Amino acid sequence: MHLNSVFLVFLVWIRISAALDCSQASTDTPIFDGYKVYIPGPTEELQPLPANFNCVYRITSPKQFSATVTLWNGIRGVNDYIYVLTQEGIAETHNNRTGIGGAPVEYVVVPGAEMSIQVITKSVFMNSTFSIMIEFTSAVIGPTLQMKTGSEMNYFDLSALQDGQDKTFKTVTFTGTTQIHMLRVNSSDDCQNYYIIDGTIDNHTAVYRRSRCGDLRFDGLGSTSITIMTRSNQFFGFVLNTPEEWLEYNIVSLINAVQNEDTIFSFPDNGTRQAMEVVNFNSIGIIFQAKTIWSMICEAYLVSGPPNNASTVILKVEDSEPHYFDLKYLTVIQNNCDFDFNLRAYNN
């Protein structure tokens, strides 16, 4: 048995594997939007595998591109298989019992990430086949921002980077001095996946795939940088918090204050210090109105920034009058109070 291995590293140039023995062709080709690579090629048609074949294809997207990797499984041998390790570190095995002749399997490699596909056959030729197609799409690499400190809130809307193409990844990176926690506005009308990189595009330890239909919170890991990516051009607002803010308060949600739309929120007293962060992503100006205070004794207030000691108390929740704040963001905090309130945005 022989072991041949190839590393398909797509940086500025791409070297194409063109033979089933894993040797590489000498042709270097520049990558462009929509560029496709076929393994073993020359098209996406299934190609036969010899006996005693063992090849690892490592597929890495360059910083300016994402890659869509399509795998066709034509494994027929009982002991032949295809082993996939996704960019998220999830291992999958494809064989003659997992979709032969059916629909191809599709994977995404976000900018700067890597996945691998290992194709293995045993000593007996069993007419196994396979094919891989890699298609590159340009990415919109957004800014790298330094985490603000004190009473300044760290917020962003990825739709600000929209280019009109839902297939294009838009990214933004935040860098700080501690771990970073993420809280996203609920947008269940758009169920596309989004991705979080623990680190920067150039230097990271892990990639996570999340669902826009859920997964509103992301607890920080080991890195002091976080990169968020989405293909959607729809609103994608989020805030980032430090571990101190995350641990001191149970930050239950992020609210997008919307103009001409009253939204009622309930803040039940569950025995913990809770916080709701509020951002007017479209303009400046937030209206707060406590509708019903259920507690006999209410200890709740609004602060001018994120939930930390640097933010200033701007209102104690004591009445049901509407209060206008010429602010981009604020936080509603309750320590011992059960109440309902309205939020609305206005243009200052």
Domain count? 2
Compute the average pLDDT.
86
Strand-residue proportion? over 45%
Please tell me the CATH architecture of the largest domain by its name.
Sandwich
InterPro entries: CUB-like_dom
Pfam family, one: CUB_2
Protein name: CUB_2 domain-containing protein
Domain CUB-like: 18-137
Describe this structure in words.
The protein is mainly beta and 348 residues long. Helix content is 2%, strand content 49%. The protein is built from one helix and 30 strands. The strands form seven sheets. The protein has a five-stranded mixed beta sheet with strand order 1-6-11-8-9, with no helix packed on it. The longest helix has 6 residues, at 243-248. It is elongated and about 80 Å long. Mean pLDDT is 86; it is low at 1-19 and 23-27.
Blueprint of the fold:
Layout: E1 6-9, E2 13-17, E3 24-30, E4 36-39, E5 47-48, E6 54-60, E7 65-74, E8 81-85, E9 91-94, E10 105-109, E11 114-120, E12 129-138, E13 140-146, E14 154-157, E15 170-175, E16 181-184, E17 193-199, E18 204-211, E19 217-218, E20 225-230, E21 237-241, H1 243-248, E22 250-256, E23 263-267, E24 274-279, E25 286-293, E26 299-303, E27 313-316, E28 323-325, E29 329-336, E30 339-345
Parallel strand pairs: 1-6, 13-15, 22-24
Antiparallel strand pairs: 2-3, 4-12, 5-12, 6-11, 7-10, 7-12, 8-9, 8-11, 14-21, 15-20, 16-19, 16-21, 17-18, 17-20, 23-30, 24-29, 25-28, 25-30, 26-27, 26-29
Protein name: CUB_2 domain-containing protein
Domain CUB-like: 18-137
Keywords: Signal
